[in-house]
Write a structure and sequence with these properties.
The complex is a heterodimer of chains A (460) and B (1006). Chain A is mainly α. Chain A has a domain at 46-240 and 317-409 and 440-454: Serine Threonine Protein Phosphatase 5, Tetratricopeptide repeat, CATH 1.25.40. Helices cover 48% and strands 4% of the residues of chain A. Chain A contains 17 helices and 7 strands. In chain A, helix 11 (324-335) runs antiparallel to helix 13 (366-380). Residues 1-6 and 402-436 of chain A have low confidence and may be disordered. Chain B folds into 2 domains: 144-283 and 345-870 and 928-1005, Beta Barrel (Maltoporin, Chain A); 875-918, no CATH class. By secondary structure, chain B is mainly beta. The two termini of chain B are 49 Å apart. Chain B has 11 helices and 49 strands. The chains are: A mainly alpha (460), B mainly beta (1006). Strand 1 (35-36) of chain A pairs antiparallel with strand 31 of chain B, so a sheet runs across the interface.
Chain lengths: 460, 1006
């Protein structure tokens, strides 16, 4: 280009550069869907924050209840090991570091509930006309959820970690749960939310009993908290059939929805117990059209007879977090802490049995009463994610009666589809000890690998 | 109106640009001038006419293509001294200086010499406007339609094994399954490694279309394939493909181009009478054995007459039995006929095109229809493609090209992959499947599903080339890529695994709006030194809008809609991203043999964090045509030395920069759950690439070779950093923390062994190596990504798993990986991308124009997960891999423990793999090394039978007939899991491998 054409160049270059600038001027875009964190400070968003935390708790609970149920022989594996199934290692009685998903779900449930409370406490003073935190309904609900999430955490994990810190004893979570329940009861009472207050009281009774097993609380306080709760009271973690991800995981893995037949009561104590007693707390059913699980199970030598649990027969069936009948058992166990407490304990237990039309227990010795109590708790809290901790605390504290009192792995001699206990002894040979005895590393979940690998405060 | 407003906002930069450009054109409209005409003929040195050569008046937009007799006419050429330039792929550039006299006709005949290196050929991709090959410092792979002898069934096959550094892996043998394309391995861990795709200058979607799957529940209820937008292009429409493989070449494309760019150029009409082409193709696909010797089709072809299996198929009158072609659910007849789940799948294709035009207007119109059955019973793909390309020389200095294509693609799939409702999974697992038996009369109920995908794909673009003065040229492209996808997925009322039925229907709109401007100013500084200053800008707006309706539980039989269901829900996602930037570049040319290019691209992007500003990507290239030096012996042929250095990037995802909470339903109530942690500093990862190479043709052009060494280093690599779970946010957060490296060589050697008039033999080879390594993790701890593991010192996304050191010993398994262990306590086997690839071809020319060719491909060094075996063996399936162990175990008395296994003779590996309680999902890692015969083709001119036609060619092709796997005991590396086009993950699931395809094709021109 010659120098004299520079003016010409400018004439053409100017609009072209304008185009370039126009193309590059603004790249800001706001996409719909996910919501920015600060939006949740609004009063109008608080209920949804609590509701979300309740879903987090439900999601954590049903998975723990499912695999915990398999570990403690509340159910046996019947096939699938992947989606909706019971992993091979759990089938073999092992809880491993790799079960990060459970750790993460429980942490999410805990953190979401606690964070909700912290958010409310932080923003309420700055919102004109907003109620005080001490009488704010959503704050009570958040605290209640935090209580149950911490109870789930403490009862099922060997150690606990909070907010990027180091490992602590599981009891720290239970203590945290007790504080949350206490706060929830207080706020709910001030807010006039009776149901939340009652649930908080029931939750507090249960963690006080947990802590009392280790001498970290008094059985008297636990019983006192339980006393005021009516037999018929129930507070639940809720599920929905709106979509599969919201459904009760235990039920979805059962037959009925069409795909999975991943677990069975066949071979468990409850199989024969229900056949014998008809105790509806541990009901199972027979479907002649689906006699076997959905895949072979190695330790049973092949396909497994399907006797699906009938406690949850719809994806939206809730799982109990607290109930009045659990309170009676807390009172019963508290009574057994005093020599000669058997009569009172059996009295509490028989209230429930009478309600179900079952034969009343008789008063013999304190030890027998404790054995009865263990069975009643096993039946009452079946598939609710509580059994593992009961076994752990009784075993750790040498509670008389021993866990063998609730037997696992009873085999019958019936035929497929008959509804009678179905034998597979030939294939199984002798009963493998792992079918009947809880492995030592199956008392509680380990800290998840995801925490171990990301949290510098937790060593490998 | 809201939609229009939204569109206007998204298109604002483009619209403003277009308006400015239009004003600019009006302001500088040409004044009338004294002109003349140039006419002439272009021939080879032998005198043979050359058709299709581009003849252009230098410094103007005046141009034409030669007709079949090599003749051309250029009208309205400004009077005075001028130069015409003649270009034709495969020949050296021809130039003629001449004087044009106003009102007269000047004759110019041009002879072209054959060029193997094609140094004067114009390339577009990665250059600011147009550039001659000699000017470009990076390697550019080019695939010309003329080089592809076998009629490819889709674009993926057209790319496969044809250029070094271009890795094309099919993902399964299912209808509609796209291919995974990688250029020089993986440059990103967290972002896409698919190259950008341009068609005639218009950016189109390169990621796979969303898999047809229900929005809730298990995501595998599907055929589990991803279709690729690349396959919406009719291969017969393609004139050539340019591929630039890394950041050194793709800098001017800015953020997003780190994985390279593939640009497709479609055919254009030539001046002259209409030239018609018609093509008909018939063929069939057949699955070759892919199992073990004992079970070659992994139960999918189970029946031999006289066996119990045969009896099961024949004795059930409800399906008619083997050999019967009777009634049954759609798609089942082939199953019945052959007592097999696999069939010989009929294929047919019909295509036609017409092109022509005048000096100022050219057109190319084409259409094609194909109907390909798949080898599985419900599989089918019907594709209808139409294209119209038009070129207008509006003024002498203004040319407008309008290119539009429309594709209607209908894909039907059999439920397959890792899917408990799928045919393949349940058949492969036999009696340990979700039915508890292998009776085909039960399993065939799984065919009663409808998994249908329809994609309507429009790509349209207008390119304006405006050269107001000879030293200043402008190119403006406005492009729009719109794909509408419908995924319909029905398990009807009464379906065996969902008795009350489930239906989902997903409507997805993908759109990409491109506005692209490039200006070039040529400076003649001296007789030897020339400069081309380029500048320009580009904005790309991408939007994906997805709405899904899902219903379950229908009241009864019939054809339902979602609203027939007792329960139905809807979902919606909208993601829009905008990238805009500009570039400057200067090319200095000394004596037309030394070239230096310096440039930079400046980008902003809607996904960048708020703390980030404009990103800068510099580039520098040198090119030296040493063979133009006097000292270079003529006997040494043509040689170009080149080196290039440049940066490109990949943007983070739309929500990575902000802390968010996700809305979630809680029964009928709304809730929030933690979503992204958010990172206000997040920006693009930047890949820096250095490549050096040489292009050389010697021995009278009988040998041509190009060699490239490349090294790519991705800094600020976006890693999805795992969050500490106890801090609440569980999702990993993208952060620019890592550093990864890729390096290797590319060598392409083509030899004309025999070159006689009636007989010739060409041998082609291309070699490619790739070595990747994670150099730094920054603040991140080692993590899993793309089916592999990311840890310093290991290959990027290395495949890790359990190693059995004493695999074949009758002993307890030794699985200790010790100091070689990765941080996940597993053994790092190797990368998931091949470290060595060898593509090779042989072409034999025989008398009468008959051509025979064969192409093969060897890939080694990559590892793959045999996911199907893991899933099956952990469920006690009697798997072919464990047939020996199962035989031992089934015959022996029950027992357990190593002493017992020693006694019955189980190897260490069998104890891990074949006993479900011991089984671990990370056990089945294999080297995927393979050699495949990609195609064998015979082209036979049959013009003698159609003497009224210009030409007629009959082509027979056999694809994928033979493969050899060196380590993988069964299946095929080209059958992987879901989301397989877009993801990095290489894991074999319950699919079928790409089948062998035999086709006969007749193509006539007239």
């Amino acid at each position: 280009m010659k120098f004299q054409t520079m003016q010409h160049t400018a004439r053409y270059l100017a609009p072209a550069m304008a185009l370039v600038i126009a193309a590059g001027c603004d790249t800001s875009v706001t996409n719909p869907g996910p919501v920015q964190d600060e939006f949740l400070d609004s009063l109008n968003a608080h209920q949804a924050v609590v509701t979300g935390a309740s879903r987090n708790l439900s999601d954590a609970l049903d998975r723990i209840a499912y695999w915990g149920g398999a570990l403690t022989y509340e159910i046996n594996p019947a096939g699938s090991t992947g989606s909706f199934g019971i992993p091979s290692s759990v089938q073999a009685g092992r809880l491993e570091l790799d079960f990060s998903a459970d750790w993460k779900r429980v942490q999410l449930a805990r953190w979401a509930a606690e964070n909700a409370g912290e958010r409310f406490a932080r923003v309420l003073p700055d919102i004109a006309g907003a109620p005080a935190f001490a009488s704010y309904g959503p704050a009570a609900e958040a605290a209640l959820l935090a209580g149950y999430a911490n109870r789930l955490f403490g009862e099922n994990f060997c150690q606990v970690v909070f907010d990027g810190g180091g490992p602590e004893a599981f009891s720290v979570a239970l203590i945290r749960a007790e504080a949350a329940f206490t706060q929830a009861a207080s706020i709910a009472s001030a807010a006039g939310e009776t149901d939340v207050a009652t649930a908080a009281q029931a939750g507090r009774a249960s963690v006080l009993a947990d802590l009392a097993s280790y001498g970290l609380a008094s059985w008297t306080d636990a019983a006192a908290a339980a006393t005021g709760i009516a037999n018929t009271f129930v507070h639940t973690a809720n599920y929905s059939d709106q979509d599969q991800s919201q459904g009760n995981y235990i039920m979805i893995a059962s037959p009925g929805l069409g795909t999975y037949r991943a677990h069975t009561t066949w071979g468990t104590f409850y199989e024969d117990y229900f056949r014998t007693t008809g105790d509806t707390r541990v009901a199972w059913v027979v479907d002649p059209a689906q006699p076997f699980g959905d895949a072979g199970v190695s330790k049973f030598g092949g396909n497994v007879t399907l006797l699906p649990q009938d406690k949850y027969n719809d994806p939206e069936d809730p799982i109990n977090l607290s109930s009045g009948w659990e309170m009676r058992l807390i009172q019963a166990e508290a009574a057994l802490q005093t020599a000669g407490g058997a009569a009172a304990a059996v009295g509490f237990m028989n209230q429930r049995r009478a309600d179900l039309g079952l034969t009343a227990l008789t008063v013999t010795t304190d030890a027998q009463a404790y054995t009865d109590l263990k069975l009643e708790r096993a039946l009452e809290l079946w598939l609710e994610g509580r059994r593992l901790f009961d076994i752990r605390r009784w075993e750790a504290n040498n509670i008389s009666g021993g866990i063998s009192d609730v037997r696992d792995g009873i085999y019958g001699t019936g035929t497929a589809g008959s509804g009678a206990a179905i034998g597979n002894e030939t294939a199984v040979g002798v009963l493998d000890t792992q079918l009947t005895t809880l492995a030592t590393n199956a008392r509680c979940w380990l800290i998840g690998r995801s925490e171990v690998e990301t949290n510098t405060g937790v060593s490998r | 109106m809201k939609q229009i407003g939204s569109w206007l906002r998204s298109a604002a930069p483009s619209v403003i640009g277009a308006a400015v450009f239009a004003i600019m054109m009006v302001l500088s409209a040409p004044a009338s001038a004294q002109t003349g005409t140039i006419e002439g003929r272009v021939t080879q040195r032998s005198g043979e006419p050359l058709a299709g050569a581009q003849v252009a008046v230098v410094g103007t937009n005046i141009g034409a293509r030669t007709d079949d007799d090599g003749r051309f006419v250029l009208l309205n050429v400004p009077a005075g001294r001028t130069q015409i330039r003649v270009l034709l792929i495969g020949f050296t550039m021809g130039t003629v200086d001449l004087a044009v006299i106003a009102g007269s006709v000047t004759t110019a005949n041009v002879e072209l010499n054959t060029s193997v290196l094609r140094l004067d050929e114009i390339v577009v991709t990665g250059t600011a406007g147009q550039a001659r090959r000699r000017e470009v410092g990076n390697s550019i792979a080019q695939i010309s339609a003329n080089d592809v002898l076998s009629p490819p069934s889709d674009m993926s096959q057209m790319l496969q094994a044809r250029a070094p550094g271009v890795q094309v892996m099919q993902t399964s043998g299912m209808s509609g399954a796209g291919s995974q394309i990688r250029l020089r391995g993986a440059v990103s861990v967290s972002m896409s490694n698919m190259p950008l795709i341009y068609i005639d200058g218009v950016r189109v979607r390169s990621e796979g279309f969303r898999r047809n799957r229900p929005p809730v529940g298990f995501t595998g209820r599907s055929g589990n394939i991803e279709a690729s937008p690349l396959n919406d292009i009719n291969p017969a429409d393609i004139e050539r493909i340019e591929i630039i493989k890394g950041a050194a070449a793709s800098t001017l494309y800015g953020t997003e181009a780190a994985a390279g760019v593939i640009q497709i150029f479609t055919k254009r009409g030539k001046a002259g009478a209409a030239a018609w082409t018609m093509q008909v193709e018939q063929g069939f696909a057949n699955t070759r054995p892919f199992g073990t010797d004992e079970n070659p089709f992994v139960n999918l072809k189970p029946c031999t007459e006289g066996t119990s299996c045969w009896d099961q198929w024949t004795q059930n009158t409800s399906i008619g039995g083997c050999g019967d072609n009777g009634s049954g659910p759609p798609g089942s007849n082939e199953v019945d006929k052959h007592c097999s789940w696999l069939r010989n799948a009929y294929r047919q294709k019909y295509a036609g095109s017409v092109g022509g035009g005048s000096e100022r207007f050219n057109y190319f119109l084409s259409g094609s229809f194909n109907d390909y059955d798949g080898v599985l019973p419900n599989d089918n793909q019907k594709t209808l493609v139409g294209r119209g390309n038009f070129s207008f020389d509006v003024f002498d200095d203004l040319r407008v090209d309008v290119n539009t294509s429309y594709t209607n693609n209908r894909i039907a799939n059999t439920a397959a992959g890792n899917n408990a409702h799928g045919v393949t999974l349940n058949v492969m697992r036999a009696e340990r499947n979700y039915f508890g038996d292998s009776d085909p009369n039960n399993l065939r109920q799984l065919l009663n599903q409808e998994i249908k995908t329809e994609i309507n794909h429009l790509v349209t673009g207008t390119t304006i080339n405006y050269t107001p003065v000879s030293w200043f040229s402008n190119r403006f492209t406005l492009g729009y890529d719109l794909a509408q996808q419908e995924n319909r997925n029905l398990r009807p009322f009464g379906f065996v695994r969902a008795r009350r039925g489930i239906l989902s229907d997903e409507q997805i709109k993908y759109q990409t709006l491109t506005a692209d401007y490039a200006g070039n100013i040529n400076f003649t500084i001296s007789s030897s030194l020339r400069s081309t200053f380029s500048f320009g800008g580009q904005s790309v707006t991408e939007e994906v809008i997805r709405t899904t309706a899902y219903g379950q539980d229908f009241p009864g039989p019939g054809v339902p809609t979602v609203s027939s269901a007792a329960l139905y829900i809807a979902r919606e996602d909208r993601i829009r991203t905008l990238n805009a930037g500009f570039f400057i570049q200067d090319l200095l040319a000394w004596q037309d043999k030394y070239f230096l290019t310096l440039g930079a691209r400046f980008d902003g992007n809607s996904t960048f964090g708020k703390n980030l500003g404009i990103e800068v990507y510099p580039k520098a290239q040198v090119s030296y045509v040493i063979s133009d030096e006097d000292f270079f012996p003529e006997s040494m042929g043509e040689m170009k030395l080149r080196a290039a250095f440049g940066f490109s990037g990949r943007a983070p995802d739309a929500f990575d920069a902000i802390r968010t909470w996700d809305p979630i339903p809680v029964d009928a109530n709304p809730g929030f759950t933690p979503g992204n942690v958010g990172n206000a500093d997040v920006g693009p990862e930047k890949t820096r690439e250095i490549e050096v190479g040489v292009d050389w043709a010697f021995m009278d052009n009988k040998v041509s070779a190009d060699f490239t060494y490349y090294q790519q280093k991705t800094t600020d690599a976006l890693f999805n950093v795992r969050q500490v779970p106890s801090l609440g946010f569980l999702s990993s957060q993208a952060a620019n923390v890592g550093k990864i490296e890729n390096k290797g060589i590319e060598l392409s050697v083509n030899v004309i062994v025999i070159d006689q008039p009636d007989f010739g033999l060409d041998v082609g080879n291309n070699f490619y190596t790739n070595k990747s390594e994670v150099l730094d993790l920054g603040a991140a701890v080692p993590f899993g990504a793309g089916g592999g593991w990311v840890e310093v010192g290991l290959p990027v996304m290395v495949m890790t798993g359990i190693i059995t050191r004493n695999r074949d010993a009758i002993a307890a398994p030794d699985t200790v990986c010790g100091p070689t262990c990765a941080a996940n306590d597993e053994f790092p086997f190797g990368p998931q991308q091949p470290t060595f690839t060898w593509g090779h071809s042989l072409t034999l020319r025989l008398p009468e124009g008959i051509t025979l060719s064969a192409r093969g491909e060897l890939q080694t060094g990559a590892w793959i997960n045999l996911g199907q075996a893991s899933a099956a063996l952990s469920r006690s399936v009697q798997h072919p891999l464990c047939s020996k162990a199962h035989g031992i175990l089934n015959a022996a008395a029950a027992g357990s423990g190593d002493a017992y296994y020693d006694g019955i003779g189980l190897t260490a590996w069998e104890r891990q793999a074949c006993i479900p309680a011991n089984h671990d999902g990370d056990l089945h890692k294999y080297k995927q090394d393979f050699w495949k015969l990609r195609d064998v083709t015979a082209r036979i001119p049959v013009g003698f039978a159609f003497q009224q036609l210009n030409s007629a060619v009959l082509t027979f092709t056999l694809q994928n007939y033979f493969r050899n796997m060196f380590d993988l005991p069964m299946f095929d590396p080209e059958m992987v899991g879901r989301n397989s086009v877009s993801s990095q993950n290489r894991s074999i699931s319950e699919h079928v491998p790409p089948p062998a395809i035999f086709t006969a094709s007749l193509r006539v021109t007239f």
